[in-house]
Each structure stands twice: as C-alpha cells, then as structure tokens.
Amino acid sequence: MLLCIDTGNTNTVFSIWDGERFLSHWRIATDHTRTADEYYVWLETLISLTHFELDIDRCIISSTVPRVVFNLRVLCNRYFNTRPLVVGKPDCLLPAQPRVDAGATVGPDRIVNTWAAHARHGGDLIVVDFGTATTFDVADTDGAYIGGVIAPGVNLSLEALHMGAASLPHVDVTRPERVVGTNTIACIQSGIFWGYIGLVEGIIGKIRAERARPMKVIATGGLAPLFEQGTDVFDSIEDDLTVHGLRLIYDFNKEAENV
C-alpha cells in the first residue's frame, strides 16, 4: 500500500492508497520538531482503529516545510522499510516540468495540485487552494505548472487584523447573513468573506483575460466549500486533490522505472 504524505505550513495529511481507492485520511499539526518515532506512534494508533489490514510498503512526500522532510524520511525508512519519493527532489520525476523563470522555486504542493487537476479535468486550468496562503495555480494544456498568484490566506488575514487592531476581536470565518454588518463581529465576517470572494473572482477574471481562453477553475482546501456559497466561479471542489496528485506522480515514477 502507498502512504501519501502532504505537509503544508499548518497541517500534515497522511493518506493510504490500496491500489484502487484511498482507505483513510489523517491530519496532524505540522511541527518540524516531531520525530519519526512520534509520527509512527500516532499513525500506528490510528491505523489500529481502522477495519483494514494496512501493509504500507511505498511512500511519497510533498512538503512546503523543508525542515520536516528529514524526520518523515526516517519514518518511511525505519518503520515501513522503504525509501520515499520526495516531490521536488531530482530523483522524483514529474509528468510535465514547470515552465517558470530560470532558477525559480515552485512549491511541491502547487505542482502536485496542477497535475492532479489536469488528470481529472484536462488542461487550461486554474487551481485555487485555500490554505495558509490562498494560491492560484495555472496549468497549461499538457498539465504543466506555468505560474500563478499567491495571496495571504483567510485565517492569516484574520490573525493579522486581530493582532494589528487591539480593539478588534478574533472571529470565525463564516458567511454572514447580510453584507452590511450591524456589529463588529458581523462587519469583520462580511469583510473577510465578501472580500475574499472579490479577490478570488477578480484574480480569476484577470488570469482568464491574460490567457485569452476558457479555463476551468478547481478549488481545494478546507475553506473551499464555504466560499463556494458566495460565488459560481468554481467548476469543481475537490478536497483530496493533493493526495490524488501524489498517487499519480508515484505511479508515473514506477512506470518510468519499468521502461
């Protein structure tokens, strides 16, 4: 079975693929000080609660936090007796190379997301990921990542507002009943929700105009279903996009080995 590990700035997702479907998804806070042994105790406990016989013998990692990769590698080597593929490393082949400025670094998650979306929907795509940052990733007709946009994430913006204005409370992200709030919390919620709807629709419109062609929009990330309530710009909401992409990239590398 294949263990897919997707490490973001805030959370790390572990998903197990049995060759036909994902059996389980588990989430833990990203912490570069967490050891391989701690990962295993946590993961083994969750695995023991499933109704499946999970025999992990393959691993692939995508990480936007370089400092966690070492301990994840040790986890795979020590407890699953396998050398993991790490997206972004020279030995991990990509179905289509990013076409960006020479020397530019592209987050592994952005490459994985664009390829996963391309595999499901074809080319000419915009992938909107509501994570710690809100990213807009553009996939060409062949699925290659060709650039994008990075904006502050929703929760990051809320935290900055709370820290920068002492009198403003920290609020939950939700769709307000009305645009015009009649109290401080409702005003903040409206500004965040409708502000991000405006940001998303505006950036997508600019990308489409610059590319001068029809483009599907795929949204992912925990807050995607919430923002879908305020716009019809998304063609699909897919919460498993990154791990789906990791599985595809692993399969691509295994097929390349056999050629």
Give a structural overview.
Substrate binds at residues 107-110, 184. Its EC number is 2.7.1.33. Pathway: Cofactor biosynthesis; coenzyme A biosynthesis; CoA from (R)-pantothenate: step 1/5. It comes from Paracoccus aurantiacus. The structure is a single chain. The chain has 259 residues and is of the alpha/beta class. Helix content is 39%, strand content 22%. A five-stranded mixed β-sheet has the order 3-2-1-4-5, sandwiched between helices. Strand 4 (58-63), helix 2 (69-80) and strand 5 form a beta-alpha-beta unit. The radius of gyration is 19 Å and the shape is globular.
Give a short synopsis of this structure.
Helices cover 39% and strands 22% of the residues.
The secondary-structure element order is EEEHEHEHEEEHHEHEH
Instruction: Please report the number of helical segments.
Output: 7
Spatial order of the strands forming the largest sheet: 3-2-1-4-5
Number of structurally distinct domains: 2
Level-2 CATH architecture of the largest domain: 2-Layer Sandwich
In terms of topology, how is this protein built?
Blueprint lengths: L1 E6 L3 E7 L4 E8 L6 H13 L9 E6 L5 H12 L4 E2 L21 H14 L3 E6 L2 E7 L5 E8 L1 H11 L19 H28 L4 E5 L3 H5 L7 E2 L3 H17 L2
Parallel strand pairs: 1-4, 4-5, 6-9, 9-10
Antiparallel strand pairs: 1-2, 2-3, 6-7, 7-8
Helix pairs in contact: 1-2, 3-7
Task: Name its key features.
single chain; 259 residues; alpha/beta; Nucleotidyltransferase, domain 5; five-stranded mixed beta sheet; 7 helices; 10 strands; 22% strand; globular
